[in-house]
Amino acid sequence: MAGEPGQQDRPRYSRTLADPPRSVVLDGEFILGCFNAPPELANMLDVRNPYHYPVPRWVKDFRCKEWKAFQFGDKRWFFFTALYEAKSFGLTQFTAWDREKGRCYETKRLIPFASFGIGDRLDGERPGYRDRRSAVRYSFDLTGGSILVEASRAKSAWGKPFSGSFSFAYNARQTAPSSVCLPLGLNRAMYSTKVLMPMQGWFEADGERFEFGSPDAMGILDDHKGFYPYAMRYDWVTGYGQDSKGRRVGFNLTDNQVRDPSAYNENVLWINSRVFPLPPIKVTRPNGPEKPWHIQDTEGLVDLTFKPERKNDMKLNLLLAAIDYHGPFGSFEGTLRSADGAEKVDAQGLFGMGEEKYLRA
User: Fold this and answer.
1) What is the tally of structural domains in the chain?
2) Which residues of 44-58 are buried (b: 16+ CB within 10 A; e: fewer)?
3) Residues near 300 by Cβ (< 8 Å), separated by ≥ 6?
4) Is 19 a domain residue?
5) C-alpha torsion sign, points 24, 233, 69, 345
6) CATH of the domain at 105
7) In the predicted model, what is the mean pLDDT of residues 23-47?
8) Is the residue at 289 inside a domain?
9) Residue 315 pLDDT > 90, yes or no?
10) Mean pLDDT for the stretch of residues 110-125
11) Whole domain around residue 253: which residue ranges?
12) What are phi and psi of 134, to 5 degrees?
């Protein structure tokens, strides 16, 4: 960074991660901030008057969007899974993308008014979905230092069978969580916990078994709740992998409807067991979501290009609800820097996904 015109005169970007409160809502009010660990209780429904006037608890529950998702894999495989509760509908998805052979294995279901067992406490949760032909389940043992993802699908006319089990290490020696409670206006907010973790496990498909446990096997958890506006919009990219120095690195970058994003955002860079807050960013797609995306900030810390490799789209337009979603998988290039200038990451070879999302529900 030294030597760039005006760079030495510009104040350094500063956003610190504080110790978390026990709960995100206290005495009916959100405790806003950026934290270095997840709060024990993400008690979103305890908020008082989120719309300037009292509403029943069931109304607050219906308006609070909730999801848990993982992006993980190694140099060959990329996996994406989500349990998403929009309240008017639910989405369960598990996708395995073999980058080497261009194969995809997937189970995806959109279910009216679905609930997957997402609660207020991350530690000890076991949300999931099962039907006659497929299953997706997560198990969270933060106290014990592990998180488990399991998924399977039986053979059907709509896809080939597969099964997999993946375990993520969650401990201070290998991981550094980032949690936030950020303002959305009125007395409404969003909560999120994200963390980059080493991964080990296995995946079976087409008579082959693939084992994971090498240093390049890793993944990112996204635990999320929010009282978003009726028309919800955001841009998001995340990626991970080993950099040229052999370090485990990852990032999370979001441009959403949060108020005062300079002070309140969820943008971070992970390097091994350290986490570095990053500034607000903007995503541009000059040629649409299937061509390269450009992700930059105004501080000179984020300068990335995302190159989609596989589409992951969803479009639905009903009377009271609509989805226009582009979530491609792809690779990154460019650079990421820590605010103090001590760390620089070459993003060449990092893999992940992006989202351009509009939801009316």
Assistant:
1) 1
2) bbbbeebeeeeeeee
3) 1, 4, 7, 337
4) no
5) negative
6) 2.40.370.10
7) 97
8) yes
9) no
10) 95
11) 25-360
12) -145, 160
